[in-house]
Amino acid sequence: MNEADFNALADAELARLEGLLDKCDLDFDYELKPGGIVELEFENGTKIIVNRHTAAREIWLAAKSGGFHFRPEGGRWLGTRDGADFYAVLSRCMTEQAGEPVSLAG
């Protein structure tokens, strides 16, 4: 996959994420930043950063519990270490940091 194709695919997924965050029934803020970055901030001051990483052709997620990398595969973004679904991991991280259940259906 070339860079332009990856950026288009990742940007579409980040836009999809924005739509899911808008529907999320949780008290948090998020901000879209230039370069394919989504920053989530919770009431306790903790943050989760999601960003596209063009050089690796991955979407990266940084949370209190660690860093995770996801590659597109079969219409989904799957973890490079364990094959975990991006939205399942993000939901888990948001739950941990918000202290209440979160389920993003991607």
What would you note in describing this structure?
The chain is of the alpha+beta class. It contains 2 helices and 6 strands, in the order αββββββα. Strands 1-2-3-4-5-6 form a 6-stranded antiparallel beta sheet, covered by helices on one side. Strand 3 and strand 4 (58-63) form a beta hairpin. The longest helix has 21 residues, at 3-23. The radius of gyration is 13 Å and the shape is globular. It starts with a helix and ends in an 8-residue tail after the last helix. The mean pLDDT is 93.
Helix content: 25-40%
What's the oligomerization state? single chain
Q: Report the sheet with the most strands, covering strand number, pairing sense and barrel closure.
A: 6 strands, antiparallel
Percentage of residues in strands:
25-35%
Strand order of the largest sheet: 1-2-3-4-5-6
Distance between the termini: 22 Å
Q: How many β-strands, per DSSP?
A: 6
Q: Compute the average pLDDT.
A: 93
> Taking Cα atoms only, what radius of gyration do you get, to the nearest Å?
13 Å
CA-based shape:
globular
- Unreliably modeled segments: none
Total of helices? 2
The ordered H/E elements are HEEEEEEH
Structural class: alpha+beta
Characterize this entry briefly:
With 106 residues, the chain is of the alpha+beta class. The chain is 32% helix and 35% strand.
How is the topology of this model organized?
Blueprint: H1 3-23, E1 28-33, E2 37-42, E3 47-53, E4 58-63, E5 66-73, E6 76-79, H2 86-98
Antiparallel strand pairs: 1-2, 2-3, 3-4, 4-5, 5-6
List its salient traits.
alpha+beta, six-stranded antiparallel beta sheet, 6 strands, 32% helix, globular
